[in-house]
């Protein structure tokens, strides 16, 4: 009975530890579907740049790649690089 309790405790601790690892991973933001509030959460992107991203997307269609975000006025390649791990094009 003691081995079962010990094993159960180990499984529980492992589950908790791996759960925290996955909880800290940021979810990718789809730049073709994100709203202004979501885009504003990115590093170096405030509300006005987020609005420019949405306006560019509406005028030119969806982004083909994350790097295309640099085509938006006020968004540079460095800003795209800083956020590359958090961006997605779906």
Shape: elongated
**Uncertain runs:** none
CATH evolutionary superfamily of the domain at 29-88: AF1531-like domain
The name CATH uses for the topology of the domain at 29-88 is DNA polymerase, domain 1
Task: Describe this entry's structure for a reader.
This protein has 90 residues and is mainly α. The chain has a domain at 29-88: AF1531-like domain (DNA polymerase, domain 1). The chain is 52% helix and 4% strand. The protein contains four helices and two strands. The protein has a two-stranded parallel ribbon with strand order 1-2. The longest helix has 22 residues, at 2-23. The chain is elongated, with a radius of gyration of 20 Å.
Summarize the structure.
This protein has 90 residues and is mainly α. It has four helices and two strands. The chain has helices at 2-23, 36-39, 47-60, 77-83; strands at 29-30, 87-88.
Which properties best describe this structure?
two-stranded parallel ribbon, 4 helices, 90 residues, DNA polymerase, domain 1, elongated, 52% helix, mainly alpha
């Amino acid at each position: 009975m003691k081995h079962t309790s010990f094993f159960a405790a180990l499984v529980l601790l492992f589950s908790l530890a791996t759960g925290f690892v996955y909880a800290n991973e940021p979810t990718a933001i789809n730049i073709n579907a994100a709203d202004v509030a979501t885009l504003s959460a990115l590093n170096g992107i405030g509300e006005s740049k987020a609005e420019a991203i949405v306006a560019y997307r509406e005028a030119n269609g969806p982004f083909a790649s994350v790097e295309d975000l640099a085509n938006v006025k006020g968004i540079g390649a460095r800003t795209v690089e800083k956020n590359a791990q958090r961006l997605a094009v779906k």
